[in-house]
Amino acid sequence: MTMPATALDLGRSAFSEHRWSDALDCLARADSEGGLTAPDMELVASVAMLLGHDADGVEYLTRAHQEFLTLGDMAGAARCAAWLVLYLMDIGEPARSSGWMSRAQHLIAGMEEPTEAEGYLLIPAALGALYGGDPTASDELFGRAFEVGQRFHDRDLTALGQLGLGTARITLGFPDEGLQLLDEVMLSVTAGEVSPIPSGIIYCAVIGSCRLALDVHRAQEWTAALERWCGDRPDMVMFSGQCQSHRAELFILHGAWDDALAAARIAQDRSRRGDPEAAWGAWYQQGEVLRLRGSLEEAEAAYAKAGETGFEPLPGLALLRMAQHKTSQAQVLLRRAMSGADPANRCRLLPAVVQVELAEGDLVAARAAADELAAPVHEASRPLERALAAQAEASVLLAEGSPEAALISARKAWRIWYSLEAPYDAARCRVLAGRACAVLGDPDSAIMEFEAAKGEFAELGALPAAAEVLGLTGERPTGQDSPLTARELEVLRLVAEGNANKAIARSLYLSEKTVARHVSNILTKLTLPSRVAATRYAFEHHLFN
Q1: Residues 193-240: pLDDT tens digits?
Q2: Side-chain half-sphere of 238: how many Cα atoms within 13 Å?
Q3: Distance separating alpha carbons of residues 46 and 191, to the nearest angstrom
Q4: 115-129: buried (b, 16+ CB within 10 Å) or exposed (e) per residue?
Q5: pLDDT class for 504, splitting at 50, 70, 90?
Q6: CA distance linking residue 196 with residue 167, whole number of Å
Q7: Distance between CA 485 and CA 491 in Å, rounded?
Q8: C-alpha torsion angle, residues 215, 218, 221, 224 (rounded to 10)
Q9: What is the dihedral angle through the alpha carbons of 288, 291, 295, 298, rounded to the nearest 10 degrees?
Q10: 3-state SS class at 215
């Protein structure tokens, strides 16, 4: 006779099937009916954290720690204390995290035999060294954690230690070695050898490291894998916001800016619901789209929200300052950031440094930045590295009065950006090529390059970049022969800047219903099918200020 499944059985089964909400309900019921063992309390703590219930997760893990103490299992108690250190640090409670660190250290000091908890306690110190500007110390600490994980056959700790080693190596300026370590740790994650929370940490950190190493193909591959992983766990909150912020960044690269904004908004929601690590990327990527579209005040607000997380919104904020004609402030921001940056972050900032130094007229500093960006680059380098280096070189060569060499570099960069399906950056390179052609006395080729770039910017809604092209060609906004009324032209300009009806209504002191009617009239009069087409029309007919 088969015995009916208990709430505990159902909870464990739901956990193994990634049905987190069902798992939490069943395990909580089992807890109220007859209590849980310490390992099952650890299980509930993980589920609660995954669902964004931080307080419940901490409470269950604290109870598990106490139960292990009661049973005399000091290793289990120390392990729970070590995880509490990591959880509380992640959710922004450093004082409680420090308290649990002291308790865990005292427990370990009183044990006769070593325990895997010693390795987990190395992780916070390693992260502190990594983010505090000492990647060498971080590398050593993560290496020790990795060794402890291997000694105790703890797959979670081994994977986290190897993750840290790979990240530290990239930060130290050894991207190939670091990426190889990260590929290896991802094998254990995708094979299901690592438990859910460490798996999510690893997914998100690996994608971040791929971005830092300028490896867009790896970033795309692992972002797709993370999206599938989150999709198999639809009620999970933890890590899902980070997944959306990574998606937003890739959407920006590939010119899907509306999709990027949508992903950023989801990430912001998830960050509030229990994935705090998503906050910086969610707001930063929103700021990037708004800046590129010319909505500078809204971009400023988004960057400010990103900055509230404690991480500076760079290089985006510096490029915003440049767009606001505050180039000297942009220069100060980047020079300060560069002065304390590790090799990997210097590389991330250098393309913006070139732009800002050229705008500020410091050709020597721009040349130094372009040379530093190009120094590690060769034909076998990752495409994004080669594209950024070639684009920076073209910009500096133009300023130095070498248009022929600049044209070669601009077209080289364009080919790589085109192969990466990055329309905005590819169009920027066509502008560089057009400027070089104009200096070389080839106006027809220059016009061809400018027109191609202008069309791409119009498609994207990149108002500032389109205005730059118009300035180069000597074109000026007209609109005198437009069939639209003065108010409709005003609405169309705001549509072309990427504003939604609500924002347009607020700007013009109209109701949303009135704005919607104006938009409908615009599309009808111009026989256009969509707002995107209206934006393109506005650029082509120079209907913006």
Answers
A1: 999 999 999 999 999 999 888 899 999 999 999 999 999 999 999 999
A2: 24
A3: 20
A4: bbbbbbbbbbbbbeb
A5: confident
A6: 20
A7: 10
A8: -60
A9: 50
A10: coil
Cα separation of the two ends of the chain: 81
Other CB atoms within 10 A of residue 68 CB: 24
φ, ψ at 544 (rounded to 5°): -120, 165
Tokens of 121: 């306690």
Cβ-proximal residues to 135 (8 Å cutoff; 6+ apart), any chain = 129, 168, 171, 172, 342
One-letter amino acid for residue 124 of the chain:
P
Q: What share of the chain is helix, strand, coil (3-state, %, to 5)?
A: 80, 0, 20
Q: Which of 135, 261, 322 is nearest to 314 (CA)?
A: 322
| Exposure class string for 318-353: b at 16+ Cβ within 10 A, else e | bbbbbbeeebebbbebbeebbeebbbbbbbbbbbbb
SS3 of residue 296 by DSSP: helix
Token reading at 364: 């020597």
Contact 42, 11 (CB under 8 A): no
User: Does the pTM of the predicted model rise above 0.85?
Assistant: no
Other CB atoms within a 10 A radius of the CB of residue 418 amount to 16
Q: How many residues does the chain have?
A: 545
- Rg of the chain taking only CA atoms, in angstroms: 27
Residue 239 DSSP class = T
